[in-house]
Amino acid sequence: MTGTGVTEFKIKEIEMSHLEERFFNFVKKLGRFNKRSMFGGVGLFTEDAMFSLVTEGRLYVRGGGLVDEQFEKLGCERFKHVKKTTIATVNYFDISELFDKKPTLLLNIIKEAMENSRVEREFKKSKENRRLRDLPNMQLTLERMVKKAGIPDVNAFLNTGAVDVFRKVNTTYGGDVDVKLLWKFAGAESGVHWTLLQEPTKKALLQQV
């Protein structure tokens, strides 16, 4: 790289760094957030929900709901993530020029994007959207066993309770299942790994079977 090339590269680096710093300070007005490495850049998160991406000197904000329409009207394009053999278009909009020229237009939109991200994150964590295998101790094999015993989803599992789930599974499989399944179901119901169950708890569970 020539001396001129090195100088231009350094200037570009400084400009990118300045842009990022300005954007981070701008977003601080909307609430607390943290940063993580994502897609070769930096992802911005609110309560573990990603709402923005800064990469290769460009600023992107997550779409969703009415935010999509607002960004499209403002002429913002979606982020294209280049992989080895394909290009994936992600629902994040390039706001770089808009932020540079009319940042005040973005305050309410980014605020809405942050809220949308939090709501979606909470929904994904909710029991209505979880699979049985997503519960602690419950891999695919146990999910299939539980479903075969007549427990179709997480809601039914939690409403039935570990003891009755174990009874149903035990009956379905001929009364010869490992007692560890009772511990695993109890851990899944409580949201902990089964090895963390205390002996008095295990004895109490056994007495109910």
**Parts with pLDDT < 50 across at least 5 consecutive residues:** 4-15
Task: List the strand order in the largest sheet.
Answer: 1-2-3-4-6-5
Shape: elongated
Rg over alpha carbons: 25 Å
Helix content: 40-55%
**What is the mean predicted local confidence, pLDDT?**
84
How many distinct helices? 9
Determine the strand fraction and express it as a percent band. Answer: 15-25%
Distance between the termini: 75 Å
Instruction: Report the major sheet.
Output: 6 strands, antiparallel
Task: Give a structural overview.
- With 209 residues, the chain is an alpha+beta fold.
- The chain has helices at residues 3-28, 66-73, 96-101, 106-125, 140-148, 154-160, 162-172, 180-190, 199-208, and strands at 34-38, 41-46, 49-55, 58-62, 78-82, 87-94.
- It has a 6-stranded antiparallel sheet.
- Strand 5 and strand 6 form a beta hairpin.
- It starts with a helix and ends with a helix.
Could you list some keywords that capture this structure?
6-stranded antiparallel β-sheet, 6 strands, single chain, 209 residues, 9 helices, alpha+beta, 52% helix
Brief digest:
By secondary structure, the protein is an alpha+beta fold.
Write the topology of this structure.
Elements lengths: L2 H26 L5 E5 L2 E6 L2 E7 L2 E5 L3 H8 L4 E5 L4 E8 L1 H6 L4 H20 L14 H9 L5 H7 L1 H11 L7 H11 L8 H10 L1
Antiparallel strand pairs: 1-2, 2-3, 3-4, 4-6, 5-6
